Amino acid sequence: MLKRRIIPCLDIKNGRVVKGVHFGGLRDAGDPVEAARAYDAQGADEICLLDITATTEGRETFLEVVRRVAPQLFVPLTVGGGVRRAEDVRRLLNAGADKVAINSAAVANPLLIKKVSERYGRQAIVGAVDVKRIPPKEGDPEPLYEVVIHGGTRSTGLDAVSWCEQLAEFGVGEILLTSMDRDGTKDGYDLWITREISRRVPVPVIASGGVGNLEHLRAGLATGEGEADAALAASIFHFGLYTIAQAKKFLIEHNIPVRPPETGRII
Amino acid sequence: MAQGVGRFRAVLHRLVIETGRMAREVTLVDAGIGNLASVERALIQVGAGVRVTDDPDKVATSRMVVFPGQSAFGAATQAIVDGAMGAALRMVIERGDPFLGICLGMQLLFDGSDENGGQEGLHVLPGRCRRFPLGLEEDAEPGAIERPMDPAAAKPDDVAPPQSVAEEPLSEAGAEAGGASVLTSPADEPVSSPDAAVPSPPEWSGSTVNEAGYGTTITVDDLPDPSATLPAAEPQPESAPESDIDRPRLMRRIKVPHTGWNEVEPTGDHYYFVHSYYVEPARTEDVMWMTRYGGIRFPAAVRRGNVMGCQFHPEKSQRAGLRFLRAFLLGGWG
Questions:
Q1: Looking at the domain assignment, is residue B221 inside a domain?
Q2: Which H or E run contains B61?
C-alpha cells in the first residue's frame, strides 16, 4: 500500500540552515547540502527547503542552494518561500526542485496556480496554506480556521477548508498545511484541522507545525486523528533528538505504514 | 597452451568491456514533457554515459533509449505520438534495442488515455490509461476483507451481487465499459455479510472505473457489476493473507494524484510514484511488477522483450530506483 511520508524541512536564510542541524557526522552543520545529504542517507522520504529570507538578493542565494542540494538527492525535493510569479516557479524547477510550494501568492492571485499547474503539471505544485484558529464563540458548531499569509502576519478572511478545496480545483497536487498556532510550540500538530482538510480535499495533505516528539508524528498520520498523508518536521530532526530511521521504527511499531529505512550500498 | 588461454582471456576481456561500453551509452529523450536533470544524474550514477537530445534523428539511431515524462497526456504528447519523435521511438523499439519509458513515458507506450477527452499513445503495448476515481477506500485491497485467496474464488460465478445497489442502473454502464470486478464497498454502507458480499479480487486488467473528476462525490459507481464477466483465470500474484478481521472500520479515501512511496509486487521494494492515471494493460504477460492503490492493481513496471516501462520515478526512488536503472542498463531482466 501507499506509505505515509516523513519529510524533514530545512529553513534556509542567506544560504545557510537556520539554527543549524545538530547531529553527528556533519562537518558544517549550517550547510544545507550536508544536512540534506544526511537526511537522505537516514531514509527521509522527501526533503523540503524553505526560503525564509524573502528579499530579492536572498532569493538568488536560495536558488543557488537548490542548485547545490538537488544533485545530491535521489528523493523528491520540495522548495518554497517567497514564490510570487510563474517565473519563480520555473527557476526553482530548473534549479532541480521537483515541487514548488506557493503560499501568499496563491491568495493574491489564484490564477497563478492554474497557470503553473497547467504548464508544469499538478505534481510539481504544492499549495502551502498557513492557518490560524479563530477564537471560538459560543454556539459555534465546530472550530473555525482562517487562512493567514505573510508568515501569519496578515489574515485573509478565507475559510481554511474551503480555500484548500479551491486550491485543489485550481490544480495543486498537494497541500502543505501549517498550523500557525502550533508552529514552534512542540505541542503537536493541530489534528482537528489537519483531519478535516485531509478528509475534504482530494489531494494529499502534508501536516506541519508543532512536532515535538515521535508521538506527534504518529498522531498526525493516524487514521481518526490527523489523517495526513505526510508529516513534515524540522526541529526534532535537526537537534538530533531522533533520526529519521528512529522515527520510522516508532511509526511502524504503532501501525503507521511508512517506507522502511533502506540499508546497504547505494546500488 | 598457456599463451593461447591468455590470449583467449584477453580477447574475452576486451569483448566484455566493449559490449559493456556500447550497452551503457544511453540516449535520454528530451521531448519537452519532463524535467530531465534528475533522470540524467541517476543514469550517470549507475554508470551510464548519457546523451540528452530532442532530435528525432539522433533518437532513431540510438542503441539504448530512456524516455521520461511527467504530468499528463495532452497536446504535447499528441504532438510526440504523431510526429517525428514518435516515429523515432517506434523505430528503436521495433529494431529491438533496449527502451525504457518512465512514468508518462511508460503510459505513452500503450494505446492511449482517457486524459483530456481521449488521446492516442504509441500502440506499442495493448492497454489504456485510466484516471484513479476519487472516493475509493484506501484499504480496499485484496486480502483486506477476504479470506486467503482461493484461485477458484475468482470465478465470475462466485461474484456475489452487491446488495446495496439493486436500484442503481449500473449494469449497463459497467457492461459497456468492458465490465469487471471493482473493489470498494460504498463507504456508508457496511458490508453486512463479508463472505457473501466480497467482490471478486480486484484485478487491474479489468477494473471498471468511473471518470469522476475533482470535486465529484462518488457514491455507488464503483460497486461490482453483477453482470460483469472476468477475464479468464489470469495469474494473480499471491499476497500474504492478512488477518484484518479485528481492524477498526475507520476508513480513509484515496487521494489523487497517487503520490508517494508504494510497494511493488512481488519484490516488496518501495518506489516513488506520482500520477493521476494508471495503465490498464490488455495482456497480463506484459506486466513485470504491480502495485495497488485504493484496491486497484495496476502495473508498476511493464516489460515486453526489449521494451520496458515503469510507472514510478526510479530517479526519485533512492537505492531501489538506482538498482532498477542499473538493471535496465545491464539488461538485468534477461
A1: no
A2: none
Cell numbers placing A188: 503537536
Range of the domain at B279: 24-135+254-329
How open is the CA angle A41-A45-A48, to the nearest 5 degrees? 95
Is residue A169 pLDDT above 90, yes or no? yes
Three-state SS for B208-263 is: CCCCCCCCCCCCCCCCCCCCCCCCCCCCCCCCCCCCCCCCCCCCCECCCCEEEEEE
**B18 lies in some domain:** no
Chain A positions touching B252 (Cβ under 8 A) are 223, 227
CATH of the domain at B290: 3.40.50.880
Cβ neighbours of B326 in A, within 8 Å: 267
pTM: 0.80
How many domains is chain B built from? 1
User: H helices within B24-169, ranges in order?
Assistant: 37-45, 56-60, 75-82, 84-95, 104-107
On whether residue B61 sits in a domain, the answer given is yes
- Which helix (H) or strand (E) covers residue A167, if one does? helix A160-170
Is 50 exceeded by the pLDDT of residue B222? Answer: no
Q: Which residues of A touch B (CB under 8 A)?
A: 1-5, 40, 43, 45, 70-71, 74-76, 93, 96, 98, 120-124, 165, 168-169, 173-174, 199, 202-205, 223-224, 227, 229-230, 259-260, 262, 264-267
B146 part of a folded domain: no
Please give the ipTM for the structure prediction: 0.95
